[in-house]
């Protein structure tokens, strides 16, 4: 077709005269002109052909004489009408040529409505995917905002009616990624109605061929990592268009689309409906592996249908840092999945863990946690622990290579819902409790500066239903906080040492859940008391409550577990429980029954005496203790009179013998009142009275733990004064310091048999002022003696002490009557005693002293 045929309106304005036959041929090739020239007149004749300017062609011909005049009066109106019609057509051509294409393009962009109704992936081919696309196509003029564009578009599309395309190949590129080819789609011939409001149901099968896997991988990873803000796509295609059977040529189309990341389809929300771990034999191997069965349900909200074949995936977990490569832990295979529009999709996967890689259990640099620890910490804390799913690089036999390339290059993060283990501990108890007080020589930061607790831990934990495999707890260590009535008492720190443990699995039966019984013996676990008031409340409840008290314990436990995969260390497992403590006997202090023997004076001063002795005590409590060092103050009627100390003591249940203690008798610590109370206490004690003393701890009682000493000092613990075990055959005699007496009537003297409680030191009596009494009321005689004499260890016979008889008393008469025999007498005395540098004046009241009467 010539240029004049394509653009008749652009032909040159000056022409050469042409022959009639050539003009006729030219007119036939120009439809608008030829139709007007051939149109019959209303009078039954035909108009002559006209030029573009409206002049008669015949008037220019040499044979024009045979033709009627063209400008007769009766022929002007038809000619004029013809001229007007030709002008309108000419104007229309100009508008269509210059204005309509832009307007129609704008109209098509705004009016286009494409509603996908279904997308079904019919099959996966060796090159790509064959998809069936169903959609509704129409142009809606109401969507066009510009009124003039809307009118022109409607007219133009009405004139055309339908458009068709030939087989088309569409290439999609990524302009922001060096124009990487994203994919290719082969679209079959289509015919659509472009009239305003006419709907065309489109239904065709297209072959979708993915482009470069690297481009798909980059986009997918940026989207999954949240780094994709915008996605620009550019589509290019050479489209052959036709209107009916009239070809409209081939047009190169290039369109760009921009998608905002928040408007891209998101991974659907899913629900893990089933998860089960169990031991499973490895195919072709005698060993076993850990198998996992997982079922996931998600809702497909898109009109997409696809049948996904069985696929293989790798399960990975993060490394120590975000920059470390992922760690492969398992291989998984999914069952075939049927995806249907707007319905639930169920995916079932079977995973197998053969062993745990070293990189998974190796501690991260600068920390004490491994990637496995970090994963378990989130999981068991109830948080979502992220795992990554990636296609296997070695595909199944029926998996196309292009699909493997794509899936193996994309790691999809999958939040794995955590499982809080806070409520899995069914019971927690501590038995056979043994306490160890702090080491006095330990530094403040040394664990030995804290009291320590030993005991047998019994834990009964529920096993989650999904754990159907054998496990054995071999060791535990933990950091636990102990509470009493929701107030923190202290902390038990087992972090530094693994405690041996053993466990027994109890399977579910009769509707009861499966449980794991764990037993561990903790040895010398430091207890850091953080609140002395709480400790006081606990001790008071033990002493006076009369019933079991419960301590709450919240712990973070590290567990060594033997499984089919080998030994695992699971760190930071939360555990809660209660520690029941048995109350102390109500008569505990009366049951202690302290007895002191083998007293050795180690040091004296004018105000004090330091001794070392062997004591026997009874422990009526269900607890045992080791005491490296303890110091307690001794009070009498509220006044401080001395201090007792002990070290390296092992207190067991029941009777404890040969306990070495040291004490300092120093009433001057309580001032003048202390001296008075000390003298009275010592006098009562020597006289055999049932004396009591009050013992209290103080801030220095337990070195390095002033809070414990301060807490215990608020308790007034009153106990019987320790009994001195004196030599003698008779039990009654072993409690009397004056064992026997002999009165000489004629010489008016008396001698006494004394038994010293000291086995290594000599006690001196500097003065005696005493009265012998019969029948508790009748005086017999009086002794005043101011010459010192010694009372060495063991039995000692005093010198003959002068006696001034009460001659007119009944007691003296009874004394004479007992001449040559024996008589029971009482004695009241004030005695000045001396031990080394220490001196004191005490009073003594002895009853039922056996006395011999001699002439």
From TrEMBL:
GO (cellular component) term, any one: fungal-type vacuole membrane
Superkingdom per UniProt: Eukaryota
Signal sequence segment: none
Swiss-Prot/TrEMBL keywords: Membrane, Transmembrane, Transmembrane helix
Pfam families: LEA-2_1, LEA-2_4, LEA-2L_5, Tag1_C
Biased composition (Basic and acidic residues): 40-53
Tag1 C-terminal domain: residues covered: 467-581
Name of the protein: Pre-rRNA processing protein
Protein source organism: Echria macrotheca
């Amino acid at each position: 077709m010539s240029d004049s045929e394509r653009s008749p309106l652009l032909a040159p304005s000056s022409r050469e005269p042409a022959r009639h036959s050539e003009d006729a041929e030219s007119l036939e090739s120009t439809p608008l002109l030829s139709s007007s020239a051939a149109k019959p007149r209303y009078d039954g004749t035909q108009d002559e052909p006209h030029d573009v300017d409206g002049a008669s062609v015949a008037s220019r011909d040499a044979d024009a004489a045979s033709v009627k005049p063209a400008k007769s009066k009766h022929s002007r109106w038809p000619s004029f009408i013809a001229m007007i019609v030709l002008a309108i057509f000419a104007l229309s051509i100009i508008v269509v040529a210059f204005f309509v294409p832009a307007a129609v393009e704008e109209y098509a962009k705004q009016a286009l409505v494409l509603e996908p109704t279904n997308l079904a992936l019919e099959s996966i081919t060796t090159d790509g995917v064959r998809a069936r696309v169903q959609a509704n196509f129409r142009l809606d003029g109401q969507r066009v905002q510009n009124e003039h564009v809307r009118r022109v578009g409607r007219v133009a599309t009405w004139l055309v009616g339908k458009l068709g395309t030939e087989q088309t190949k569409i290439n999609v590129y990524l302009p922001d990624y060096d124009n990487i080819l994203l994919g290719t789609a082969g679209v079959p011939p289509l015919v659509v109605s472009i009239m305003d409001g006419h709907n065309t149901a489109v239904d065709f099968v297209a072959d979708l061929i993915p482009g470069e896997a690297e481009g798909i991988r980059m986009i997918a990873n940026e989207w999954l990592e949240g780094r994709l803000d915008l996605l620009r796509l550019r589509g290019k295609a050479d489209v052959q268009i036709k209107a009916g059977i009239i070809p409209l040529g081939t047009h190169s189309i290039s369109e760009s689309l921009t998608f905002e990341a928040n408007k891209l389809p998101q991974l659907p929300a899913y629900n893990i409906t089933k998860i089960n771990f169990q031991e499973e034999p490895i195919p072709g191997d005698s060993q076993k592996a850990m198998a996992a069965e997982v079922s996931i349900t998600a809702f497909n909200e898109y009109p997409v249908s696809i049948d996904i074949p069985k696929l293989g995936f790798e399960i990975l977990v993060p490394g120590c840092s975000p920059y470390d490569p992922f760690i492969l832990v398992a291989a998984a295979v999914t069952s075939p999945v049927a995806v249907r529009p707007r319905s639930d999709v169920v995916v079932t996967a079977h995973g197998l863990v053969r062993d745990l890689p070293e990189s998974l259990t190796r501690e991260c640099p600068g920390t004490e946690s491994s990637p496995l620890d970090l994963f378990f910490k989130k999981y068991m804390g109830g948080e979502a622990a992220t795992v990554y799913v990636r296609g296997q690089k070695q595909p199944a036999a029926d998996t196309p290579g292009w699909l493997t390339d794509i899936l193996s290059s994309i790691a999809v993060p999958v939040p794995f819902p955590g499982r809080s283990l806070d409520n899995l501990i069914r019971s927690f108890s501590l038995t056979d409790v043994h306490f160890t007080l702090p080491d006095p020589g330990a530094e403040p930061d040394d664990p030995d500066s804290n009291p320590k607790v030993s005991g047998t831990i019994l834990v009964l934990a529920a096993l989650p239903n999904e754990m159907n495999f054998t496990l054995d707890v071999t060791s535990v260590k933990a950091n636990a906080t102990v509470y009493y009535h929701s107030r923190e008492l202290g902390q038990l720190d087992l972090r530094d040492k693994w405690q041996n443990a053993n466990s027994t699995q109890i399977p579910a039966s009769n509707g009861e859940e499966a449980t794991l019984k764990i037993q561990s013996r903790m040895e010398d676990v430091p207890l850091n008391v953080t609140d002395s008031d709480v400790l006081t409340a606990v001790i008071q409840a033990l002493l006076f409550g009369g019933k079991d008290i419960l301590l709450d314990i919240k712990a973070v436990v590290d567990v060594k577990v033997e499984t089919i995969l080998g030994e695992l260390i699971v760190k930071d497992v939360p555990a809660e429980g209660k520690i029941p403590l048995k109350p102390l006997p109500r008569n505990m202090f009366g049951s202690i029954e302290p007895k002191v023997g083998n007293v050795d004076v180690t040091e004296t001063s004018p105000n004090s005496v330091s001794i070392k002795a062997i004591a026997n005590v009874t422990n009526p409590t269900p607890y045992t203790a080791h005491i490296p060092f303890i110091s307690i103050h001794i009070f009498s009627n509220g006044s401080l009179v001395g201090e007792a100390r002990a070290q390296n003591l092992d207190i067991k249940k029941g009777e404890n013998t040969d306990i070495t203690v040291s004490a300092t008798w120093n009433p001057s610590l309580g001032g003048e009142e202390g001296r008075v109370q000390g003298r009275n206490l010592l006098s009562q004690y020597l006289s055999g009275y049932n004396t009591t003393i009050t013992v209290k701890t103080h801030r220095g009682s337990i070195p390095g733990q002033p809070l414990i000493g301060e807490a215990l000092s608020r308790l007034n613990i009153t106990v019987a004064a320790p009994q001195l075990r004196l030599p003698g055959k008779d039990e009654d005699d072993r409690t009397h310091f004056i064992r026997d007496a002999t009165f000489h009537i004629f010489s008016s003297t008396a001698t006494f048999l004394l038994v010293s409680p000291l086995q290594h030191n000599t006690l001196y009596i500097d003065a005696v002022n005493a009265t012998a009494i019969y029948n508790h009321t009748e005086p017999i005689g009086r002794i005043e003696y101011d010459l010192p004499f010694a009372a060495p260890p063991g039995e000692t016979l005093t010198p003959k002490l002068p006696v001034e008889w009460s001659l007119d008393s009944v007691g003296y008469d009874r004394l004479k009557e007992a001449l040559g025999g024996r008589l029971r007498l009482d004695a009241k005395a004030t005695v000045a005693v001396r031990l080394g540098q220490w001196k004191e004046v005490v009073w003594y009241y002895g009853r039922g002293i056996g006395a011999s009467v001699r002439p």
